[in-house]
Amino acid sequence: MKHEKARGQVSRRQFITGSAALGGSMLLPGFINSVWAAGSDAPEKREIRVGFIPLTDCASVIMAAEKKFDEKYGIKIIASKESSWASVRDKLLSGELDAAHVLYGLVYGLQLGAAGPQREMAMLMSLNNNGQAITLSNQLKQAGVTDAASLKKQVDASAKGTYTFAQTFPTGTHAMWLYYWLANAGIHPFNDVRNVVVPPPQMVVNMKIGNMSGFCVGEPWNQRAILDDIGYTAITTQEIWPDHPEKILGTTASWVTANPNAARALTAAVLDASRWIDTSDANRIETAQVIAGRAYVNSSVETIQGRMLGSYENGLGKKWQDSHSMRFFHDGEVNYPWLSDGMWFLTQQKRWGLLDQHPDYLAVAKKINRIDIYKQAASAVGGINLPSSDMRSSTLFDGKVWDGSNPAAYANSFAMQR
Question: Averaged over 255-278, what is the pLDDT?
Answer without folding.
Answer: 98
